[in-house]
Structures are given as structure tokens and as C-alpha cells.
Amino acid sequence: MMQRFIKLVRVVPLLVTLFSLFVFLSAGAESPTLLSLTPTPRVQLPTPAATATSQKPQVRTTRQRVRTPNACGTASQTTLPSNAIIVDDLSANFHRYGTATWYEATGTTGYYNGHMYWLWNRENDVANYAIWDAPATSGLYRVFAFIPSNHAYTTWAWYTIGRNGNETTCTIDQSIYYAVWVDLGTYQFGSGAGNYVKLDDYTVEPSGTTQVGFDAVAFVPQGPSKAYLPFIVRSPSTSELYAKTGIHLGNRDRDWNINASGQSVDFLARLRGSGRPATVVVLSHQVYNINRDSGSNNCNITDATVKNPAVFNYLRDATQAGTKVLIRLWPSPGDFQDTFIYSKPHTLFNLAGQTPQSNNYCGTHVVPGTTDYQPMPWFFRSIDDLAREMNAIHALNVANGFSEYGFIPANEPNNEWYSDWRNKDPNLFPKVSDEEAWQAMDAYFQSLYDYVRANYSPNIRVLTPPMAQDNYAEARSWEDIMNPGQCDPRWPGGAAGYDFMPYTYNSKNDGFAWNNYYRQGKEPWANTDGGQDYCGVSDHVFQYMPYWLTNQVKNSGKLSFISETDLYSPCFRSDNPITDKDANPTLTRDSLWSFLGQEQGAKYPVVWLLSEDPYSTKEKCADPNLTNYLEIKWHEGYRNDGTIRPWFDLWWNP
User: Fold this and answer.
1) CB contact at 8 A, 161 and 143
2) Which residue in 471, 478, 533, 586 is deepest, having the highest Cβ count within 10 Å?
3) Alpha helices in 141-286 (DSSP H)
């Protein structure tokens, strides 16, 4: 605390030197010899901050690029091992480039080797940067940046680590460190010009309001580099896999103890005792009745009661035995201005009590394009309505002696709220490929989280919404992963949809959830630390997420779940070698165990699904010659008459 106070006191010179802004904006640059390396354009983002419940959340209204915070870590130390290779800012292996004047500071304490450079920051782009060359000898190195005592006040210093054409970027809050070495992580470096550490003046804070400090960088050898094989299929014990694997209970109108003919069948039999999964996912409307007050202005939720007692009792018993229960809210259609009036903009509301045309939740409405009428919550739900449902379910569970682990607030909103909206309306704006769609989702889910935190029990956990893979969530197109090296960028500048949802996926959640379907043969985890490209090797969605998000998942201390995983069905992709699970039960079992064993991102992967009743008839296979399964029939473990599928019989048999 004393060091932090001292550093804050030392910010005074920053105020004294504000007169030099004119120099910063207009002075000529030094003229070092430029490398062939060109700074990569990045995206901009305001610092995530708590949003008051009564205020509108922070939403970018212009098409800005987003620079996303990827925390390097917080570990720091005052000394380094004796074998550290230090590149000082006065070294021949340190290079400065750009258009602004570089300022210098010297002193006997607070700077490595008595000297540092610093720059005024820029808000919107990179104008100046420095390069520290990696050691000439390739290998695995732990990297440290020395943060000097003065002129290093930015809260977002963006360090880029280059390794043979691959770049990883992460951030350090320089303002909290005082003459210490801060850990940037461990990396496999090659030899030559493509291996370096880079720091620039683009901090996204208002231009000229803070200073970026450039001092020494250290490379500490970590022993011989790791070797990897492109296809390594791990064979862990089944007991180890059972201990982390979950099962999605499926979609059922009937309870889990009755088959399609009304006969008594226990669909949960395999999930009891030694077969108890680590996690189960269930849809809220299949377990609970959500009751409303028809006399209130908005027909608000009053409480929840048990709808299907067999599954409710199972959830209670499983939770008490250690299973983590995730409840996915359904319906969760978003809250769009154009729900009923198509001429309205596709604006996603994010304030409590805000509904399209001020409709309430009582009554019904016709489903567009049909003659069917459904309850109003099928069409829109404001953030406070979802929060009330969570609170009602949580209260009922607690009254019965257990608590769910957390709530999934929506499923694949990039698909359901945008791509599939109004039968794929070509005139929709924003579309899922527009930044505004992702920014709007970010505002909605951060507002939901803030509302729950402000109004209800702190024991109610809100997870991130699982996004549909290969629908602009990832930086690279999923359609090309069968061709190694051919994964096309989805967004300009290498961004991802997740990059436009920094609040939801940083501080505004109590855990992480995503969905992950894969193909046989793509179960291995690519060794990206060893330089292996995940494209064409791995179908693990985690490896396609932006670095800042994977860093959050790994280091935030929150639990992470794959809320749906299974082999791709032939209805969805034609390039999965397994086209009939029942005809290949052993291959199916082995593939599932391999994928689950290789997964290193999610702590608890959940396999989709146990049972469906009645069968969905809207999703049929595009190519009936591959198989006659409907989409759900491909995934289910039990047929709706209660007989077990051969692949599931082999796979889930503790």
C-alpha cells in the first residue's frame, strides 16, 4: 500500500508537465531505422466499470474498433534469476519507432540501469511503439517487463509478444507498480526478427492524459522447448472423466419418469448413484411453473412452483450429493423493439421494465407466419423479468433444501436473436455480423447481471450466455477448419464477436458457459504454446476464443462449463466421419471420451442430450441419404419410449 501511495504522489509531475501536450501533438519524431514489422491495428474499448441499476449501460454508438483488455497477470518481483537475459531500453536490441517525441527520465533509483523512455498516450490508434528483441537462441522463456517508478501511469499498457508470426497481446496497469518486474507469461520463441516484445502508446484512455513507460524487458529461460504431435489422443481413466463430465437432461414436456406412451420409465436411472454426473443442465420451464400477477401493470412474476416433481426431486438429490445444477432460462427471446412491428429498428432494450410498445406479459400473441398463439414471454423479456425468474426459482430451491449452482440467461443469442430472427430477414439491422449487435447483447447481459446483484440474493449466480460457434463469435471462420491454415478472419483486424462484449465476459458474470460441437478426428488439443496452429487440428471452441477471454476463463477463479457438447450431427455438417451413432457405438464412445479428455478450457463439459419428448419436427436433416435421424434424435441418449441408445449404453456406464 505504501508503494502505491508513493507512486500516486509521484503522479504530480504528470500534472506539472501537461504543458508539453503541444509538443506531443506537433513535434517531429526521431528517425530510427524502421523494421519491416508494422503495428497491427487494434480495437478500442472503454474501461469496464460497474453500471448503476437505474442507469443505461455503457454502449458504443459509433462503429469504433474495440481494443480488448487481456490481463497479463498481477505477479511481480524485485529480483530475477541469475540466468535472466535482460534487454534494457539503452540496449542495441531495443528499438523505438513512430512520429512523436520520446521523453527520457533518469535517476539512481526507480529505473532499471538508471534510465527509461516515456510517451504521452493516444486514445484511438497506435502512433509510436518500441520493440525488445527476444534472445537469439530459440526456446521457452518467461517474460518480465520492468515498470519504473515514474512516467508509467497508464492503466492499460498493451504488451504484444511475437513468436514467428503469432502474436499474443495482454495488458498491465502500470500505475500500480513501483520499480518491479511484472510477469507477462511464458512463451515459446523462435529465432530471428519475428520474435519480440512490443509496447505502444495506444491505451484507449483520452489522448494526452497519461504516460506510458518503456524500460527493460527480461527473458528467463525455462528449459528445453516442448515437443508436440499433431494428433495426440489422450486415454485417461473413465473414472477421471466421469468426475468432470456432465449431461444435459434434454427437452421434455413430460416428466422424466414417463415415456411417450404414458408408461413408467426412469430416464434418470443411469444418472444416479455411481453414475451421478458432475454437472447437469436443465431448462427452467421443464422443471418449474413460473407464476405471474395478472393484476400488476406488467404481469410480473410472483413465485415459482414445481411442474415436474420427478426431475425436481432428482435435482435436489443430485445437488445434495455434489452435482452442480445449471438452469437455463427458457424462453429467453431478448427484448426487441421490432418484436411485433417489423418496421421498427432491431433495437435490443436493456432497461428494467422496458418492453416493445409497452406490452405486458399477460395474454398471448400469434407466432409470425403461423396461426399459433403463444404466451407473451415467448416473444420478449426485459432484464428484470429474467431476474425475477431466477429469484423465484432460487427461492423455491432453497426452501426445499438445495440450491442450483447458477443460471444460463440465454442460449446462443447470436443465432436466435439475430441470425434466425424473422426467418433470416435480409433487411435486418444490426445483423450478427455487425458490431452493434454484439454491443447491444453486451449491454443487455451486463444490465441483467447488475439488476440481479442490486436486487436479489448474492447466492444467485449468472453465467455468460453460450454463443453459437461459427457465427461471428470467434475471430476465425469455423467453416474452414477442415483446411489447415485456411481459417479466414471473421472480422477486420482479427477481432472476434466476443471482443465487442467486454463487460459480459469480464466482470459481469459469475462463471463462463459455451457450446462446443466437433467432428471425429478433431478431438486433440492443439499445442499452441509450442507453435502449433489450432486450425484444422482442434475442434475445441476454447482454442478459437480471443486470448483475453481464455485468460479470463483460466485465471478469474470462476468455474467454466461447456453447456452443450457432442459430435456434429449429419443434419448440421456433412464432413463428420461418423454419420450414424447407433451403427458405430464404440467409435462414438471413444470419440466422446477422447474429446472430453483433451478439453483444457472448461472445467465441466456437459454432453447434449439425455432425452427429447415430444420430438422436434422443425429441424430435419438437409441430406436424408446420410441418416433418417432428426437433429435431436442424433444426440439423445434415450429414445422417447425409454429404450437406451447403443452408443449411450456403452458411453455412460459407470
Assistant:
1) yes
2) 478
3) 238-242
DSSP type of residue 134? P
Q: Are 481 and 465 in contact (CB under 8 A)?
A: no
Unique residue bearing C-alpha cell 428484470: 384
Long-range pairs for 477-482 at CB < 8 Å and ≥24 separation? 478/544, 480/535, 481/522, 481/535, 481/536, 481/539, 482/519, 482/536, 482/575
Which residues 6+ apart lie within 8 Å of 482 measured at CB?
519, 536, 575
**Could you tell me which of 304, 269, 270 has the C-alpha nearest to residue 284?**
304
Nearest to 70 by CA among 157, 151, 147: 157
Interatomic CA distance for residues 369 and 366, integer angstroms: 8
In 112-207, the DSSP E strands lie at 115-120, 128-133, 139-147, 157-163, 166-172, 180-189, 195-200
SS percent in the chain: helix, strand, coil, step 5: 25, 20, 55
Side chain identity at residue 242, one-letter code: Y
CB atoms within 10 A of CB 253: 11
Ramachandran angles phi, psi of 514, nearest 5°: -150, 165
Q: Which of 129, 142, 135, 189 is nearest to 164 (CA)?
A: 189
Contact 406, 326 (CB under 8 A): yes
pTM: 0.71
Cell numbers found for residue 603: 472445467
Packed helices 435-455 and 383-399: angle between N→C axes, nearest 10 degrees? 40
Per-residue pLDDT tens over the stretch 529-573: 555 567 778 899 999 898 889 989 998 999 999 999 999 988 877
Q: Is the pLDDT of residue 71 over 70?
A: no
Domains and their CATH numbers in the chain: 2-221 (2.60.120.260), 238-651 (3.20.20.80)
Cell (9 digits) for 321: 450429493
